[in-house]
Amino acid sequence: MSDTTWTRHHILSLADFTTPEYDIVLQTAASFQEVLSRRTKKVPTLQGQVVANLFFESSTRTRSSFELAAKRLSADTLNFASATSSMTKGETILDTAKTYLAMGTDIMVIRHREAGVPHAIAQEMDRLGVRVSVLNAGDGQHEHPSQALLDLFTICTLLDPDFPRVELLKDKKIAIVGDILHSRVARSNIWSFTASGAHVHLAAPPTLLPKLFADYSKDKPGKLFLHWELEPALQDADFVMTLRLQKERMTSHLLPSLREYHQMFGLTHSMLQLCKPYVKVLHPGPVNRGVEISSELMDDSEFSLIQAQVTSGVAVRMALLYLIGSGKA
Ligand code: NCD
User: Fold this and answer.
1) Residue 208 CA, ligand 1 centroid: distance in Å
2) 21, 211, 257, 317 - which has most CB atoms within 10 Å?
3) pLDDT digits over 217-237, tens only?
């Protein structure tokens, strides 16, 4: 695996990721995908290291995927869920992190509903001078780097299974549709897709797509376009990513009704006819069936990459844990 130029200690955001870093992640993940296709799916790479999953917010696929990835690399895993932890007794986030540090944790995978928490813990670990890496597994509405990297891997391996690399996305049209305002996945995806040279078209009602998103593509080889209706974003698209309406993060009435939203921005077989004939559909999950995507389209394996995204997640997270963890042994 070509990790000779990998120097990043924490993975907190994709805003400053470079093309060589994306390519290292893609190629390392491809090697682990091959490992996962073998009869013995485990490698000793992180034997003796401790990976702690600190999830202060609920999760199904991200938490399980990180846990499986760590186990496939032979690391010891610790799982924390805030509802059953000492936080209910008033312990602070930093004290919780230090408790896991005292147990010998090498990598902390952190999810929190507030933006910036993984960054604050990483800073504290650096201040203490300990060699603990922090991986952001989703912070508020800020970023979700591992999800965007698995989305990138899913698309690039479809385009070239033997040699996934970012240049495959050059000039591809990718539409991101839905609740962009609340989506950390969309924010991370905008960084990775524009850095890859793709043309990214965002589509949502104005309440869910503020104009400030236009700033994201500055200095990137790809371009970013904003639309407040669905059709122009779908026209000739190669890939379409729909996003969950994050009802739990909506602070006021941003939408008239779910039925009307589905009519205007819901992805269906008939809307897909605007796209390229071989278009593929992605969704980070969890899905509100019949709201952002029709149930029939979600289950149609001719178009839907949703299950492939979940499968890719394990190989990509193995790659991330390997890249930040392999120097620690
Ligand atoms: C997303 C998340 O939590 O940010 N899901 C995920 O991690 N796969 C998206 C969402 O919650 O809608």
Assistant:
1) 16
2) 317
3) 777 788 899 999 999 999 999
